[in-house]
Amino acid sequence: xxxxxxxxxxxxxxxxxxxxxxxxxxxxxxxxxxxxxxxxxxxxxxxxxxxxxxxxxxxxxxxxxxxxxxxxxxxxxxxxxxxxxxxxxxxxxxxxxxxxxxxxxxxxxxxxxxxxxxxxxxxxxxx
Amino acid sequence: xxxxxxxxxxxxxxxxxxxxxxxxxxxxxxxxxxxxxxxxxxxxxxxxxxxxxxxxxxxxxxxxxxxxxxxxxxxxxxxxxxxxxxxxxxxxxxxxxxxxxxxxxxxxxxxxxxxxxxxxxxxxxxxxxxxxxxxxxxxxxxxxxxxxxxxxxxxxxxxxxxxxxxxxxxxxxxxxxxxxxxxxxxxxxxxxxxxxxxxxxxxxxxxxxxxxxxxxxxxxxxxxxxxxxxxxxxxxxxxxxxxxxx
Lengths: 127, 246
Ligand code: SF4
Ligand code: FES
Hints:
Chain A is built from 5 helices and 2 strands.
């Protein structure tokens, strides 16, 4: 007779590695909110100026701003975890030599910085 | 000599309907490993205690336990590391059925290992009669070597919640070994292995929790292997789509 314990719903609370994993997966929740906001914005754009203006007003609501700020932080956290995993899943070889992991991680962050600069240029016209 | 409380999850099927935790006082110094502690308990205090071990040097892979909730090799961790925590709880490897005390039934793991055909497959057997060596350059070897260091200890399975939820999942260790052979320039068996690797019970069951790679005593990085296998499997799927279109 062997004895087998089944995993309960709270299995992930037993270990800090599992908690970090669940936190990574949970970053999708504020992102869903952000995407819904975006979709609502596009929809309101098709419905004319009054509708667009009220969407802009809703986006200025402190609670909405806070949730979207959370979405930004969550997506940066998810990116940080993903960037570290990337060179392990897609090891890049140049001239038979493996490109060091830190270099690939740094490259990805440089890409993020690039996107931020581009967004700042488009939306605020700085630079 | 200092002593420390060591608690062990016991399960004697003829006595217990479910596991119980028993406590022992164990003398230790800086060189006492958890395996040494188990040996001392068995010799000095309770000869009925059962556990697996062999090499005492982290190479045979038989002494895997949950130590304070983390999968570890008993011979590779020392009581001194837990002196600060003040207590040590030793349980059998998680996610496997317990046969007796710290001994788990590894049958599922063995079946998964067997299923991925962990050996070099040649379309045509050659070189045996003529004794032709299968040559390989250091660069070719470098591609798979990391994944060939596995000692089949099963720690990664005890670390994998997906295996805990579904024991049919081939799991980190076996998938890493499959990937090791798929990357070997001498092997021609990739097409034979891919259907299983690309199946639902294969690499795609993995959600990259990543804890398997943290606990691996050999730095095999099974999570990387599993996710590289996902890339291979996705490539195969796309190629098949194109082939069908032609
Ligand atoms: S991959 Fe690492 S943790 Fe898993 S069985 Fe092999 S040596 Fe053990
Ligand atoms: S006894 Fe061999 S790995 Fe620990």
